[in-house]
Amino acid sequence: MNALWIAIGFLTTLPVPSHNLTPDAMRRAAPWFPVVGLGSGALLAGAAGAAGWIFPPAVTAVLVVALWAALTGALHLDGLADCGDGLLPPVSRERRLEIMRDPSVGAFGVTVLVLVLLLKTAALANLTVTWPALLLAPLWARWLILVAARRPSARPGGMGASLGPVLDAQRLALVALLPLALTGGVGMWHWPVIAAAGAAVLAALGVLWLAQRRLGGVTGDVFGAVVEVSEAAFVCVACVHLR
Predict the structure, then answer these.
(1) Distance (Å, rounded) from C-alpha 188 to C-alpha 164?
(2) How many domains does the chain fold into?
């Protein structure tokens, strides 16, 4: 149970018993990441349903995206912005890593951050049925962190090196049973979530390809970018098909 509390405390701002986030603790908590994503998605879906009774779709979408960011303490958004600044400009690998360690945000980071938030908001505002996307997008995104963790770390001792050793292919496949089963179940009534899940995976792989090409591996910021980009891809494809 301690591993679950660690996962919740790391991935959300929900109040849980305090734990030291040591590399060993993070490795034990890693298999619980998709469960935390599912819980976050359930909260978002419930909030969207409640807000939808009061507010028009556009206002509801803004409120849900704000809650989405608040629920994670903007942890993944911060990683996305840092990746925008570090991965996109034409600089050396060493300079990219320096930029990503800098707490300030530049033009590339702001642009990527705003575009992803706008995509999420616009997509949710145009979804007639919001709960399938809100339930499943965070679930897939947290499993995709585990996929990212199997990539080599771009620098020693960082978050990119803290999860990988315990996540062999067999365990990763076992943890994937939860998102696969729920997507298949929901897909029986809302089949487009299957295409949305595929889009989320492809988007995450695109981020990882870019990180490998330009950094030589992953960092904690890359994990955040994987989450945000895959979630945005999920809701955008769901928006196209579930209108």
Answers:
(1) 34
(2) 1
